[in-house]
Amino acid sequence: MLEAIKNFFRTSMSPASEATDADNRKDLRLAACALLLELAHADDEFGEEERGHLEGAIRRQFGLDAAQADTLLRLAEEARAKAVDLWQFTNLIAENYSLGQKMVLAEIMWGLVYADGRLATKEDYLMRKISNLLRLEPGYLAEARKRVEDSGAGEDFGALD
User: Fold this and answer.
1) How many domains does the chain have?
2) Cα dihedral angle (26, 22, 89, 92), rounded to 10 degrees?
3) Which long-range contacts (CB under 8 A, 24 or more apart) does 135-138 make?
4) What pLDDT, in 10s, does the model give residues 58-104?
5) Hey, what long-range contacts does 83-89 have (CB within 8 A, 24 or more apart)?
6) Does 138 map to a domain?
7) Does residue 136 sit within a domain?
8) Domain span holding position 7
């Protein structure tokens, strides 16, 4: 599986001339997608609204076509299923994303949570847990949530790359 992930990123995600920065962005993309998938599955219901929001956000944020987004989500699902905790994903993001990028990710996560029209207790808990692991202060999490509630779920909030 690890070789499949590496091969996917080598062949379809970015130009070879940006090797080290591109490799880091690829790992970050996988980590962000794995967190989003974890959140999508938090309430044990991963419906069409959530799937549509997630796929759209991945395509917009990372500039992927439908096939690339599908492959990234499949690989992220495999990584998520094999992970023993969220730290491997959140630590990579916490170390490499700016505060602004973390806020964008938090807004995407809130949009995903609200995509089905309701906030489950497990989703709320997981949002707080992930935000803590990302080293986002509670005020930032509340700000991201308010922007999503005011704008409506599914909005495009900026770029993660």
Assistant:
1) 1
2) 180
3) 135/94, 135/102, 136/99, 136/102, 136/103, 136/106
4) 999 999 999 999 999 999 999 999 999 999 999 999 999 999 999 99
5) 83/34, 86/35, 86/38, 86/129, 86/130, 86/133, 87/133, 88/31, 89/31, 89/32, 89/34, 89/35, 89/38
6) yes
7) yes
8) 2-11+21-151
The model scores a pTM over 0.90: no
Dihedral angle sign, alpha carbons of residues 24, 75, 119, 129: negative
pLDDT tens figures, 19-44: 466 566 778 999 999 999 999 998 88
Please indicate, yes or no, if residue 145 is contained in any of the structural domains: yes
Cα Dmax for the chain: 45
Buried (b) or exposed (e) across 51-60, using 16+ Cβ within 10 A? Answer: eebbbbbbbb
Q: Are 142 and 107 in contact (CB under 8 A)?
A: no
Q: At 63, which CATH number? A: 1.10.3680.10
Query: How far is Cα 141 from Cα 138, in angstroms, rounded to an integer?
Result: 5
- The answer to whether the beta carbons of residues 59 and 69 sit under 8 Å apart is yes
Is 48 within the bounds of a domain? yes
